[in-house]
Amino acid sequence: MLLTVALGLLAVRGHGRTTGLAEWSVGGRSLGTVFIWVLMAGEGYTSFSYLGAAGWGYNHGAPVLYVIAYMSCGYALGYVVGPTLWSYARRHGLVTITDMVAHRYGRPWLGTAVAILVTVCLLPYIQLQITGMGVVVSTISYGAISLNWAYFIAFAVTTGFVVVSGLRGSAWVSVLKDLMVIVTLGFLAVYVPLHYFDGYGPFLDRIVAEKPDWLTFTGHGGSGLGGSWYVTTSFLNSLTVVIFPTTVAGYLGARNADALRRNAMLLPFYNVLLFVPMLLGMAAIFVVPGLTGAGSNLALFKLVVDSLPAWAVGVIGVAAALSSIVPMAVFMLVIGTMWGKSVLGAIPRLAARPDRQKTAAQVVVVAAGTLALVLTYTEPNTLVRLSLISYEGMAQLVPMILLGLVWRRMTLWGAVSGLAAGGALVCWLVFTGHDPVWGVNAGAVALVVNLAVALAVSFWGPRTADARPDEEVLASDPGRDPDRDAGGDTDPMGGVVSGAVYHRND
């Protein structure tokens, strides 16, 4: 934990003179391929990698593979969407997804409304990371640190880290995190099957013979997670992940569009590691049977704690803890930036002062983390219920953002009406227990309704006057990086070598 904070401080060394919101929130738009790669890999390797993926494998089996499917498809979409959003934001000086919405539709209040919606959707993720890291810290300390203290440690380390270092610090810590994730998951992929089953062959033979329903849709337990659910969930989430605020923060931190394209090609290879906790979760069925509810999320750690020495458990636990810190830091950073720019930034005293917007954003980071921590202690079920609709709720922003940025006829009221219709429907379906509905992801059903309403209102509803030219309103692919076209060689860590002179955006 101390090393994490130290890396955050080291990351901002030399950048302290740049006090604006853009440097803190998107790393001064100067991160190269390596940093963008490890930062965005944090989307896939959170505490879910060590807890949730193993728990899903333990409880359901094959349906958990949707995670790999949607992330890989999302990276393919990101090859086009990432550079497009990056170019749009850079051209207009925007630092969040809410800025883009406000600029596209010419209504600052819409950016404020979207910021509130996104905050409601992201708070459960912060709580889940606090809970996940707390469970890891308590487990690897063999109970010496209570869950309540572990939750506070998770909050304190992450909040202090993100306030000081911003996105640049998250990228630096992601390098350490990813190295540890690769090493620990690679080790567990070999060790656990050999230790408990004498290899993958006997393990897979046993699961085929004794637990075949874990290897097919709809998985174990009659969950209804069949082929239709798998396809619609993978499709919906692949669309959502490219406009997810934390993903967009990674896009906007890139030095150039080519870094994002290379990143989109490389990231799917990283997804291969996600097979490890999924398979080991299924292996835990035979070693620690009878885990139920939230206890199933500890399936992988039960295997680790029961078979490895304390120092090895500690190393794996640190990797899991870092897998909570990095995404939680970016979640908090995104909330702070949205409020600092789109909500509080509308206050005249802050509007013209980027340094004050940064301070306001840092205060919001602390407030958001504190709220998530307090609710973790007092009303954990409130955020758990919200988490049920977080991703499906975020999906309802897809027409407003992706379609709106490429189609001029999408009107303000069309986008708002579609969002309202889709959001209301997904809340009703999820909270009344109709997810999946007819075997289809409820969020996908709501997205279809959202799109239909948005198109109908845009074609036949009221239109608002907007005299701005298309170049001001719409986004476009930026093409190749001009530095590369001029003969420069892009440095993957964030600079450009041009002849004998080394330029870095500080």
Characterise the protein shown here.
This protein is mainly α. It has one domain (2-12, 25-388): Sodium/glucose cotransporter (Up-down Bundle). The chain is built from 23 helices and 3 strands. The chain has helices at 2-11, 21-26, 33-41, 47-59, 66-92, 97-105, 108-140, 147-197, 200-210, 227-241, 245-252, 257-270, 275-287, 299-307, 310-343, 348-351, 354-378, 380-394, 398-406, 412-431, 442-460, 470-473, 482-485; strands spanning 489-490, 495-498, 501-504. It has a 3-stranded antiparallel beta sheet, with no helix packed on it. The radius of gyration is 23 Å and the shape is globular. 54% of the residues are buried. Mean pLDDT is 82; it is low at 485-506.
Give a brief rundown of this model.
The chain is mostly helical and 506 residues long.
Topology diagram in text:
Blueprint: H1 2-11, H2 21-26, H3 33-41, H4 47-59, H5 66-92, H6 97-105, H7 108-140, H8 147-197, H9 200-210, H10 227-241, H11 245-252, H12 257-270, H13 275-287, H14 299-307, H15 310-343, H16 348-351, H17 354-378, H18 380-394, H19 398-406, H20 412-431, H21 442-460, H22 470-473, H23 482-485, E1 489-490, E2 495-498, E3 501-504
Antiparallel strand pairs: 1-2, 2-3
Helix pairs in contact: 1-8, 3-8, 3-12, 4-13, 4-15, 5-10, 5-12, 6-7, 6-19, 7-8, 7-15, 7-17, 7-18, 8-9, 8-13, 8-15, 8-17, 13-14, 15-17, 17-18, 18-20, 20-21
